[in-house]
Model the fold of this input.
Amino acid sequence: MKYEFPVTRTKNPKKRPEDETKLGFAKYFTDHMFVMDYDEGQGWHDGRVVPHEPILIEPASCVLHYAQMMFEGMKAYRRPDGVIQLFRPDMNVKRMVSTCERMCMPYLPDDLLVAAVEAVIKEDADWIPTAPGTSLYIRPFLFGDEVSFSVLPAKHYRFMIILSPTGSYYAANDGGLSATRIFVQDKYIRAAQGGTGYAKVGGNYGGGMRASQDAMKYDCKDVLWLDAAEHKYVEEIGTSNAFFMINDEVITASLDSGTILPGITRNSVIQLLKHFGIKVREGKLSIDEIVAASKDGSLKEIFASGTAAVISPIGCLNYNGTDYTVNGGNVGPVAQKLYDTLYGMQTGVVEDFMGWTYPLDVKVENK
Ligand code: COI
Done:
């Protein structure tokens, strides 16, 4: 379906970040945003592109009390020929549907998410950075803003998209890869079976902050979560999926438990590893097996994957007061190859041999 969204251009364009190599993650926001409303009985209506500015929200809105919300994470990249492209947006659409079903929220009709992303990017395409490791982070989100204290699904929702020129979440200063320290969390949990672990909801992240804050006291960037039932099997790393290479096999937690976020980068990594002829297994891996593999030298690499994190190598696990160094604390060859291939495809400098990139009808003059 072809959508037409009215555009109100900003009268006060913002000053652009001066140094693209120091963008950090989501510190700057572009000039425009997308907004759309939903009313029970009417459905989604009044999609529009407007200046990015604070919104009014009634203090009794249900999202502020019961957290009925969801969000997505996507990125747009500027190819060398100036064409702007997305990466596997069909997977965001699919995940958005499953999150909305879990949260009793109305999801967007088929192609509306991508049409809305394209509409707002058209206004701000020249904000897309090109320095190594950068991209335009796209944050679609949806929340119930009905005035109600009943613990029931709202009858009115708002959907919005905001954009941020950004570096990688755990970026090195030069935009390249560097290995981070991660704290193995065996007290707090991220998600239990039957909960919302597989859904992209704010509560999963808010509930993880205590653990991440504690990890920082040990000079760690984030946590490695263990399963909720036995505190034994590895699940995710901070805001990302986790991969462990032991001998010649790469292992990641399976989606079957419903506690793991079905990452788009996770799925891409699994397919790329298979393409490279590297063995990959989705299943259970205990922290005890990782410690044993570290001691006998068979633990080769650990890395996290995510839209924000891209591929983030882990150089050290801190567990029960002991440091377990991985690959001498350096970036491993598998993580490096995955990063170069994925980010290369996304930015159009490596041929997209998987058919994953999604060029938009938007082109900008290159710098
Ligand atoms: C993403 O990778 O897009 C995420 O949503 C992670 C974010 C919480 C930093």
Q: What stands out?
A: The helical segments are 63-66, 89-102, 112-124, 202-206, 209-217, 264-275, 287-296, 333-346.
